[in-house]
């Protein structure tokens, strides 16, 4: 967690809502694909235009009365599993107890009528909790609950198989929504929550087969947790922990007070596709200590202005990126749809810097400098194995590290106009680098071993991209700043087949 470097396909129903007409990026057989025509308008305007639920109770549904405090929780307790509840129009309340949540049974369905709101009144911590699988919540506004930091309001206990659709989850503390395995999160407005819009995390085990599709995720981290706990790595529009298999598509992720999408610690097998990610204070996307992903056909614009400028103003030389891969790469031994990280067909436009591939020489399993303390790579079963003398030899020398390797960056378009970003320096970087290893004293990765590996030996490659604007490149360590000719020349030999222009049309 944290980013300091010194120490260490859409369903038909959603397609009309989500995506303007766009051509694909595959091209014809035998030709190189061209950068895709990615979305140019917001892909999921669900906060301004939320869908309406049923105006009448469906057959067999249990009506819930907003005039009776606690009616929803009580009727849930007194009904069998697989019951459908229809919340009448109006403001629904729970009992005036901070733990007075709704605890669904298996297969329960909650439908909000037009204007149905479940309001925590800044009193209740959680809206829906418990471990029952297969719960559905649709067309309901959930607001003003006060979950503690790192906890969530809807699906508080990360139960499996929940479906959350066409709902507005807003103005809560903590995370608006938690995610368990086999969860479907579609066409929701996740807005103005104190920490995260979504926190995909299970206290035990992994979150598997997660779908996040056609949502608007905006204005989250209103409580400013990165300022309250510097370096906590505990904010974002959406945060993912130990997720195995996630499709993140057609979302509009914007104006979050921090990172837009952040996958942190032993995630694997992500498809991040067709999203519009814009105007977030921090990076559009961080993929950290994780594995195997396809990041394609996204439009990523005007991100990282706040945090990038903060770094620059304090004199930090690190190339703080808009797409930041930190100790993450392709790993064929971890089963996934791909065995690399492929970044292709994206448009990055007027962000603070571009893509940084980073590997902290001092961060590895069992190192005191590992900010994901207690976690190990997916290649080592027991953390204590990563110790001297065994860590200095194969296979643990490689397997105890989260390695930034097998990253393939191609057929993207990188556009930078410094007059738009309002910067003169340090907002124009593309980078592959590591720090000089120093810590701990028993580390086998001291010196420039990791910097040499990430730059020259781990199959990280840029090629066939289009650059517009005054781009610079950083290789090996923060002190090596290159122009395009040096970047393409020996010994780096990056961006074969790419084009460089000073301005549009140039």
From TrEMBL:
Could you tell me the superkingdom of the organism this chain comes from?
A: Bacteria
Originating organism: Streptomyces lucensis JCM 4490
Q: What range(s) does the Carbohydrate-binding/sugar hydrolysis domain occupy? A: 158-312
Under the heading Pfam families, the entry gives: Beta_helix
Identification of the protein by name: Lipoprotein
Say yes or no: keyword Signal present. Answer: yes
Q: Which residues form the signal peptide?
A: 1-24
* Keywords of this entry: Lipoprotein, Repeat, Signal
């Amino acid at each position: 967690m944290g980013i300091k470097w010194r120490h260490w396909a859409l369903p038909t129903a959603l397609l009309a809502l989500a995506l303007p007409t766009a051509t694909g990026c595959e091209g014809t057989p035998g030709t190189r694909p061209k950068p895709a025509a990615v979305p140019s308008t917001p892909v999921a305007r669900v906060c301004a235009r939320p869908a309406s639920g049923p105006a009448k109770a469906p057959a067999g549904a249990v009506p819930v009365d907003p005039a009776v405090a606690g009616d929803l929780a009580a009727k849930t307790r007194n009904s069998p599993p697989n019951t459908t509840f229809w919340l009448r129009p109006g403001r629904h309340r729970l009992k005036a107890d901070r733990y007075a949540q709704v605890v669904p049974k298996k297969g329960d369905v909650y439908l909000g009528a037009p204007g149905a709101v479940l309001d925590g009144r800044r009193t209740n911590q959680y809206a829906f909790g418990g471990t029952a699988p297969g719960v559905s919540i649709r067309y309901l506004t959930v607001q003003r609950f006060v979950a503690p930091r790192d906890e969530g309001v809807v699906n508080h206990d990360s139960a499996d198989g929940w479906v959350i659709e066409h709902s507005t989850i807003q103005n809560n503390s903590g995370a608006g929504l938690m995610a368990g395995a086999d969860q479907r999160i579609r066409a929701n407005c996740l807005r103005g929550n104190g920490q995260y819009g979504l926190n995909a995390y299970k206290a035990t085990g992994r979150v598997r087969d997660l779908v996040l599709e056609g949502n608007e995720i905006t204005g989250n981290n209103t409580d400013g947790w990165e300022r309250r706990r510097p370096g906590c790595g505990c904010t974002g529009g959406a945060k993912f922990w130990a997720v195995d298999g996630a499709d993140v598509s057609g979302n509009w992720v914007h104006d979050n007070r921090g990172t837009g999408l952040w996958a942190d610690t032993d995630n694997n097998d992500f498809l991040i596709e067709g999203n519009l990610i814009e105007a977030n204070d921090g990076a559009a996307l961080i993929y950290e200590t994780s594995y195997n992903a396809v990041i394609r056909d996204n439009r990523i614009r005007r991100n990282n202005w706040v945090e990038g400028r903060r770094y620059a103003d304090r004199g930090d030389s690190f190339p703080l990126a808009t797409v930041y891969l930190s100790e993450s790469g392709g790993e064929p031994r971890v089963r996934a749809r791909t065995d690399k990280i492929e970044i292709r067909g994206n448009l990055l436009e007027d962000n603070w810097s571009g893509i940084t591939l980073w590997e902290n020489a001092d961060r590895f399993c069992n190192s005191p400098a590992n900010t994901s303390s207690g976690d190990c790579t997916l290649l080592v079963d027991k953390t204590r194995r990563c110790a001297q003398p065994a860590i200095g030899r194969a296979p643990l020398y490689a397997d105890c590290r989260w390695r930034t390797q097998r990253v393939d960056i191609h057929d993207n378009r990188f556009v930078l106009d410094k007059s738009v970003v309002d910067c003169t320096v340090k907002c124009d970087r593309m980078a592959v680098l590591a720090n000089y290893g120093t810590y701990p004293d028993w580390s086998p990765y001291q010196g420039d071993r990791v910097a040499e590996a990430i730059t020259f030996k781990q199959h990280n490659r840029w090629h066939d991209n289009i650059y517009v604007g005054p781009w610079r490149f950083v290789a090996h360590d923060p002190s090596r700043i290159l122009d395009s000719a040096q970047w393409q020349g020996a010994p780096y030999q990056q961006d074969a087949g790419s084009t460089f222009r000073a301005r549009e049309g140039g």
